[in-house]
Amino acid sequence: MKKSIIALATVLTVLCSANNIQANTAKLESGTTEIVDASQLQSVYDAYFTVKDALIKSDSKLTSAKAKDLLTAITAVKMDKLKSNEHTVWMKVVKKLTADAKSISATTDLKKQRETFKSLSKSTYDLIKVSNPEQLIYKQYCPMADADWLSKEKAVKNPYYGSSMLTCGNVVETIK
């Protein structure tokens, strides 16, 4: 009888331990999903900023290469992993984002790249407004180009004119 009670207690202990392990595994998996959700669009934003930085340098070949990276980031987004508000905006802007990234990557004409960057910036702004970026993002505006762009830095570095008018523009919005 005593052996039966000990055996039963051992079985119950093993079962309880197994349930705890399953619960902790489920928590870890759901935590991982949230991390994936957060980084889904972050890679698109990061690639956008590298395109902007290449335009600031007035380097058309680098801009083209960085636009290809942006295209890769756009196509890697798994729509089913986005939050509902992000998904709604993503569906509205994904075709334009893709077309703009393709257009910029397909040319080394700096003027054309900068013109297309205006549209790319608008689509990226629409998307970043509904997500929670990892850091502050500054929407900046250049009256000479009559165009906006996004930046991680508050200091103005104009992608539309590069070194010829590097500081032309101002911060018009801070996105948190």
UniProtKB/TrEMBL annotation:
Pfam families assigned: DUF3347
Signal peptide: 1-23
Keywords on record: Signal
UniProt superkingdom: Bacteria
Stretches assigned to the DUF3347 domain: 44-134
Protein name: DUF3347 domain-containing protein
Gene source species: Flavobacterium fluviale
